[in-house]
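Action item from last meeting closed. Structure (440 res):
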């Protein structure tokens, strides 16, 4: 697919949202003037709100356009499109979308997949977080696990029921930073650091020392505590790199598998048979072992049949991009993986199963590719990579992102009054879905 038609499509989407938002704003202004004896300020707030809303709608529209019409050859196209759609002018108001990292302020939304989803973290992973102690790590794991048996130093319902204001652990994945703060021993200061309002931006009160709450070191750098490292928002799965529903190998026919992944009929038969007969089959099995090895685990080839060909890199890449294994289709999607294209190199410090030599090699290889890693087979170029390491990596990392957190700040031009909306948007299914909204 060439990039040109896709670009003009995105531009069209951007223009359409701006026109639509301006129209809404004009209607709001016209109808508000009649009632707005209560003052200029209320009207300015309305204008700023609708400008912020326009920013959110614009980001959502760009995400949908990039999902329906993806660029499979460049891992950064969607991110660049979102960044390019991070500011706009409406009638009497503007909006801007930005976020702060330790290295400064950047246009565009936060990629939730550039952080580690806390719901995927092991005890050893959790212990790498600043200020973490064994009792808090155990309590976080207890909050997430389905059982009611406390870990050695953990806490289950019995503990929370004994509090002055009792509540119960979710016993399922944590859904927000605010929920994480309910876990025994978790201090909001660990979670938020200086980003007290959790908007991902270094606000004036977060950079003035103790002149106003919260406490901060006024160094011009946002130290966002755990919220800079972990997320609760990212979602696994979603549409394939080519923008299609993934083929579920538990119910797919051999010819469908062959058509989507360019494997031979013999290879497709082994793939489908293996997933059908091996109830614990996972996608990384196709990375870890050859098709002949997988075939041997389910009884081997028919007598006299030729040995099945191993998947080449292109076929393996297509299989991992286009297919999935979901046994319970009613189950909620799993927490998201880390996007190896968009994460910061420092993030590997919090994934101890990826040692520093491998982390350095991953980053060097990524930097050498202008378009990032677009297929899992690309990861084979990383020095020291072998099938077992690649399979382990597949279970931790992803090449694309489903969820972005948008902080859109609307500003009334006349008064300077601002309204800010922070929202997480999920494009793992279409239409894209707004998962949470905070308005300030
Ligand atoms: Ca437990
Ligand atoms: Ca902030
Ligand atoms: Ca302060
Ligand atoms: Ca600071």
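Sequence:
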């Amino acid at each position: 697919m060439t990039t040109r038609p896709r670009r003009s499509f995105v531009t069209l989407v951007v223009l359409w949202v701006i026109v639509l938002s301006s129209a809404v704003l004009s209607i709001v202004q016209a109808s508000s003037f009649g009632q707005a004896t209560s003052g200029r300020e209320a009207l300015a707030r309305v204008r700023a709100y609708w400008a912020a809303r326009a920013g959110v709608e614009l980001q959502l529209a760009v995400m949908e356009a990039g999902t329906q019409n993806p660029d499979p050859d460049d891992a950064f196209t969607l991110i660049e499109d979102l960044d390019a759609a991070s500011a706009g002018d409406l009638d009497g108001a503007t909006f801007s979308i930005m976020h702060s990292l330790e290295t400064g302020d950047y246009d565009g939304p936060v990629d939730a997949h550039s952080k580690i989803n806390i719901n995927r973290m092991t005890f050893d992973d959790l212990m790498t977080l600043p200020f973490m102690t064994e009792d808090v790590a155990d309590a976080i794991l207890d909050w997430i696990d389905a059982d009611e048996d406390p870990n050695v130093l953990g806490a289950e319902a019995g503990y929370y029921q004994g509090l002055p204001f009792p509540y119960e652990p979710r016993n399922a994945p944590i859904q927000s930073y605010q929920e994480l703060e309910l876990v025994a021993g978790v201090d909001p200061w660990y979670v938020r650091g200086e980003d007290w309002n959790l908007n991902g931006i270094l606000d004036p009160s977060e950079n003035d020392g103790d002149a106003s709450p919260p406490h901060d070191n006024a160094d011009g750098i946002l130290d966002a505590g755990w919220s800079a490292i972990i997320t609760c928002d990212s979602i696994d799965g979603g549409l394939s790199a080519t923008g299609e529903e993934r083929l579920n190998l538990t119910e797919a026919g051999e010819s469908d598998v062959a058509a989507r992944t360019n494997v031979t009929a013999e290879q497709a038969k082994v793939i489908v048979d293996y997933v059908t007969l091996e109830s614990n089959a996972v996608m990384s099995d196709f990375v870890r072992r050859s098709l002949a090895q997988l075939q041997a685990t389910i009884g081997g080839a028919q007598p006299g049949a030729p040995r099945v060909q191993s998947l080449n890199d292109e076929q393996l890449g297509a299989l991992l991009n286009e297919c999935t294994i979901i046994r319970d289709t009613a189950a909620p999607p799993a927490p998201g993986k880390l996007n190896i294209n968009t994460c910061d190199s420092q993030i590997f410090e919090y994934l101890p199963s990826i040692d520093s030599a491998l982390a350095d090699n991953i980053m060097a290889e990524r930097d050498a590719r202008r378009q990032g890693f677009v297929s899992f087979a690309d990861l084979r170029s990383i020095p020291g990579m072998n099938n077992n390491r690649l399979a382990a990596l597949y279970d931790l990392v992803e090449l694309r992102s489903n969820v972005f957190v948008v902080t859109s700040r609307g500003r009334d031009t006349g008064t300077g009054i601002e309204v800010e909306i922070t929202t997480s948007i999920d494009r793992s299914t279409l239409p894209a879905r707004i998962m949470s909204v905070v308005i300030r």
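Note appended to the action item: The chain has a mean pLDDT of 91.
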